[in-house]
C-alpha cells in the first residue's frame, strides 16, 4: 500500500437514483420575510434513524512529559484527490452513543484506548451547502497503560491510514508546513489549530 | 423580517440536470493498493474558474479594552432548518483574492472595516463527503477608526443576518449555551472555540 498509488481516474455526474451514500435535495422554505424560496442541499443517506448526527471526530490528546500532543492521520480522500490531514473520525453506528463511537473509532484507527473528557456541541460542517454534522469528542490517552504500549489498529481491508502526532502548541505552524508539502488540511483540524494560535496570541 | 418566519416547507430529490449551485458526482479512483474503486461526492458549481477555493471565512477580532471579542452572526440555513452561529463568510468572486473577499464580505455583512493579519491554509469542510473548501482570514478591527463607529452593513435584499460579539476567552462556553438555546453551531466556529479551550486547559 502506498499513497502514491491513489489518484482520481475520472468523475461523472451521479443521479440520485444511483447514489447510495449521498443525495441532492431541493428544499422549499419560507425565508425571514415569510417569502417562499428554494435552496439546494447535499445530504448523507447514512445518518442513524434514531440519531441526530452523522459522525464523530476525535480530539485525542496524548499527555506526554514533553507536553500534550494531538493524534492526527493522513488519509487519501477521493472527493479532493489529495492526502488529507484529519482527526480520527467515523460515522456513528445505529444504537451507539457519540462517546462509544469515538472510543471505538480511535481504537480501530490508531490502536489507542482513551477516556472521554469532553463532548462538543453538535456542529455543522458547511450549513449553506449540506446538512452533514458531527460532534467532536475529546479523549485523553494515558500513555502508561499496558494497552497503549503495543498499538494494534484494526483497519478495514480497504482503509489506509497513517497516524502521527503533533505537539498541540505547534499545530497551526505544522498545518501550514503540511500544506506547503502538498497535503490537504481538514477544516476541523485547521480551525482547531487557529483557535490554539489565537489563544496563544492573546494570552487567553 | 424575523427568524420565526423561516422554516422548511418540503424537501424533494433534485436531479443534477436541474441543480444550479450543486452537483453530485461519482468518482472513479485508484486506492492505495492501486485497486480501482468508486466514491460519491457532492460539489459546488460556483468555484471561480481560475481560483482554488470556494469561499472565505473571517475571524474578525475587535480589540477592546476589556479584551478581544470575535464577530459572529446568526443566519437561517435551509439545509439544516435552523438558525446557525457562524463566522462572517462568503464565496470568492471571479478575479478576487482571498483577502479582498474577506474584507469585502466583512464590510457587507457587518459594516466593519478591518485589516488582514493572517490567512489560514486551504481547508476542506468534509473531505470524505464533498470537495468544498475555504480559507479563514483573520482580520483585526480598530475600534477607534471613524468608519467603525456607525456601522452600515450592505446586505442583499434577501439576506437576514444578526451580528453579535463574544469575548474570545468565553467562546466555547458560549457555543454550548447557544446550542442549549436551540441554535446550530457551524463547525468552523465550534472547532475554533475548542482550540481556544484546549489551549487554556493546557496553558499553551
Automatic annotation (TrEMBL), chains A, B:
- One BP annotation, GO: ribose phosphate metabolic process
Q: Indicate the segments forming the Nudix hydrolase domain, all copies.
A: 51-188
Q: InterPro entries attached here? A: Nudix_hydrolase, NUDIX_hydrolase-like_dom_sf, NUDIX_hydrolase_CS, NUDIX_hydrolase_dom
Q: Name one GO molecular function term.
A: ADP-ribose diphosphatase activity
Alphabetized UniProt keyword annotations: Hydrolase
Q: Does the keyword Hydrolase apply?
A: yes
Listed Pfam families:
NUDIX
What is stated as this protein's family in its record?
Belongs to the Nudix hydrolase family.
Q: What is this protein called?
A: Uu.00g118620.m01.CDS01
Give the species: Anthostomella pinea
Amino acid at each position: 500500500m502506498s499513497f502514491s498509488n491513489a489518484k482520481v481516474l475520472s468523475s461523472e455526474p451521479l443521479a440520485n437514483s444511483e447514489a447510495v451514500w449521498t443525495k441532492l435535495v431541493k428544499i422549499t422554505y419560507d425565508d425571514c420575510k415569510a417569502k417562499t424560496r428554494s435552496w439546494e442541499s447535499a445530504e448523507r443517506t447514512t445518518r442513524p434513524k434514531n440519531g441526530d448526527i452523522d459522525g464523530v471526530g476525535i480530539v485525542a490528546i496524548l499527555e506526554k512529559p514533553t507536553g500534550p500532543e494531538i493524534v492526527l492521520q493522513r488519509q487519501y480522500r477521493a472527493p479532493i484527490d489529495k492526502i488529507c490531514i484529519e482527526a480520527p473520525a467515523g460515522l456513528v453506528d445505529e444504537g451507539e452513543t457519540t462517546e462509544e463511537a469515538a472510543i471505538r473509532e480511535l481504537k480501530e484507527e490508531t490502536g489507542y484506548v482513551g477516556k472521554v473528557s469532553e463532548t462538543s456541541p453538535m456542529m455543522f460542517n458547511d450549513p449553506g451547502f449540506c446538512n452533514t454534522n458531527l460532534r467532536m469528542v475529546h479523549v485523553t490517552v494515558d500513555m502508561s497503560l499496558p494497552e497503549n504500549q503495543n498499538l494494534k489498529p484494526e483497519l478495514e481491508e480497504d482503509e489506509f491510514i497513517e497516524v502521527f502526532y503533533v505537539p498541540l502548541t505547534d499545530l497551526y505552524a505544522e498545518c501550514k508546513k503540511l500544506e506547503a508539502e502538498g497535503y490537504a488540511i481538514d477544516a476541523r483540524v485547521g480551525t482547531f489549530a487557529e483557535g490554539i494560535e489565537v489563544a496563544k496570541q492573546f494570552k487567553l
